[in-house]
Amino acid sequence: MSPTPRLRKLATFLAAAAVCCAAPAAPALGAARLKARHRPHPVTLEWVGDIALSTQRGLPPGGLQRALGPVAAQLRDADLTVGNLEGTLSVGGISKCGGIGGGNCFAFQAPPSTARSLHGLGFDLVNMANNHSFDYGASGRAQTISALNTAAVAHTGLPGEITVLRSGGRRVAFVGFAPYASDANLLDIPAAQALVRRARRSASLVVVIIHAGAEGAGALHTPHGSEFFVGENRGNPRAFAHAVIDAGASLVVGSGPHVIRGVERYRGRM
After folding, report:
1. Which residues pair with 109 in a beta bridge?
2. Which residues is 48 bridged to in the sheet?
3. What is the DSSP letter of 69?
4. Closest by alpha carbon to 167, among 245, 73, 81?
5. Per residue in 251-260, is it b (16+ CB within 10 Å) or e — as a string?
6. What pLDDT was estimated at residue 82?
7. Rounded-to-integer distance, Cα 125 and Cα 119, Å
8. Per-residue confidence at 15, pLDDT binned at 50, 70, 90?
């Protein structure tokens, strides 16, 4: 999952969008010196897509920190570094694949100690709203949350969850969505808008993370309308992103297709 130069540029581009689009309008009166005094402190955001780790399928030799050592400086360079955690940080339990796996069923489980590695690499928050957070049932999810809390890595994506972090004196709210009832549900757009409005009341910036859309090389472009994968409704990413921006989101970032998609500017935001 090493970020390519293209991904790095995309992250910087998205971060710049978050800064520019969420800043309140400059006051109509006052000298430039006063304007500068009240100008919000910029916040840079580093976004990493799907992070899938599996003991059963083989973990990186030497651990996650060694594997990502070459890009660790980049991960720590931003004010806030955020990723999508696909799978669980847990031990034991029953896989959703019934111990078989293969085909279209994949269950990811890595040691709880992985959370400390994520923290050491600079991750401030991970999104848990995706199709792998229940790979090992309720126990797997509970162990993952406990491991993240112990390692001081914040998380978002649970039903109704709003996570607020501070950076440069600013409050930044994160809300994660996926097309499942066990997460903040991406398929219920009115409820998602209500959650974003709540987040906007508690922070000057609201970052929405979505896990949506079809997967693979044929999913390079975001179509109009709902997307499906292996018969599963993965939501309407365009309509959802527009709706949450209408509700007050500053920035929408996504994962799930496993390819780099385009960037859209909507109402001055991304």
Report:
1. 88
2. 83
3. G
4. 81
5. bbbbbbbeee
6. 96
7. 9
8. very low
| Calpha distance 85→172 (Å, rounded) | 19
Half-sphere exposure of 47 (CA within 13 A, CB side): 26
- The predicted pLDDT at position 8 comes to 42
Q: Are 189 and 243 in contact (CB under 8 A)?
A: yes
d(CA 228, CA 215): 9
Q: Does residue 10 carry a pLDDT above 70?
A: no
- In angstroms, the CA 133 to CA 141 distance is 6
Helix (H) or strand (E) run with residue 199 in it: helix 189-202
Banded model confidence at residue 38, pLDDT cuts 50, 70, 90: low
Which of 213, 216, 215 minimizes the C-alpha distance to 224? 213
User: What is this structure's pTM?
Assistant: 0.83
| C-alpha angle 245-246-248 in degrees, rounded to nearest 5 | 60
| Residues whose CB is less than 8 angstroms from the CB of residue 6 and which lie 6 or more positions away in sequence, other chains included | 260
How is residue 86 written in tokens? 């696909």
For residue 34, give every residue at least 6 positions away whose Cβ sits within 8 Å of its Cβ, in sequence order, or none: 27
Give φ, ψ of 178 to 5 degrees.
-150, 160
Comparing 16-30, 60-74, 165-179, which segment has the lowest mean pLDDT? Answer: 16-30
* pLDDT at 96 > cutoff 80: yes
Task: Find residue 178's DSSP bridge partners.
Answer: 185
